[in-house]
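Appendix B. Extra example for self-study. Work through it before the problem class; the solution is given directly after the inputs so you can check yourself.
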Amino acid sequence: MSCGEKLAEEIRGKGFRVTPQRGVILETIAHMGGHLSVPEVFSAARDRLPGLNITTIYRTLETLHRAGMVDLFYSGSGPTRFALRDPDQAHGHLVCSECEQVMDIDESLIAHLAEEVVRETGFSIDPHHLTLVGVCDDCLSEGKRRIS
Amino acid sequence: MSCGEKLAEEIRGKGFRVTPQRGVILETIAHMGGHLSVPEVFSAARDRLPGLNITTIYRTLETLHRAGMVDLFYSGSGPTRFALRDPDQAHGHLVCSECEQVMDIDESLIAHLAEEVVRETGFSIDPHHLTLVGVCDDCLSEGKRRIS
DNA sequence: CTAGTAGTTGCAATAGTTTGCATTAAGCAT
DNA sequence: ATGCTTAATGCAAACTATTGCAACTACTAG
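Solution. Structure tokens for the complete assembly:
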């Protein structure tokens, strides 16, 4: 069973329908991997299924997000990006506001903060969805811009 | 001297020009307060200065952000929001993905995390700009949706 | 006070994203 | 296998945000 098929089973198991469009989209994002934008996935998936509409990508993405299968993150500039969630390797994202680079951050660091926040405020941060914006090591040392 | 004029001095001091448009925008956001969206500010500021273009709001905002005078935050849905930074009361933001409510979070909690992150990864989070998305106490207890 | 420079503005075009609605078809029950 | 129910799709339009460019003007130097 291909990665896409595995995802199809997973989403069906959560009560969503598996359509040809979704099959192609799932196969595509499983194959591409990494931190994708909607337009990227769209152009790749449309090659496999002409006539596919970009709206369907957005809505499928929203569905996968609701199903807890992808994480979304907004880099502060450029299009929103998303990634398949790997249950064995939960992590947050660090997005560099200078170079757009996306780094992974270990879940434990996040979980620790999340715990503190919920204790202090009652507000539940989802460690899976966490994205922190800042400046990466490289850009910082290049001194392109100091943190304001 | 009005709040808007104080802001005008501040931005002039950082090497930016003070134009009539910026004067009106600064006066407007100082008067409105809170967590504003661009369209909100636009409609209020245009009343004071007809002909004002919404692009100017976006660009002024970007300028104020670069000057370190406003913080931006993305709620994950809806338009981007921003707030004047109060130097005496630095804080991050907690945005509820259910009800769009924005809560403040004490800087010390954030600063602690930022320290850990920079030590582990070299990545510098700016405590002033930090926004965390999650589910607030109210929405959680209403059980509208569990964290996915 | 005047002229020059460079930052700023408005407009138009474009990119990215969301929403409403009619149509289609996946999955369930028979 | 057949029909039913309702989720999902495609299309178009609206909306949010960004960018290029020509015209304008705030500020500085003289």
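Self-check: Helices of chain B lie at 3-13, 20-32, 38-48, 54-66, 107-121, 137-142. If your reasoning did not lead you there, revisit section 3.
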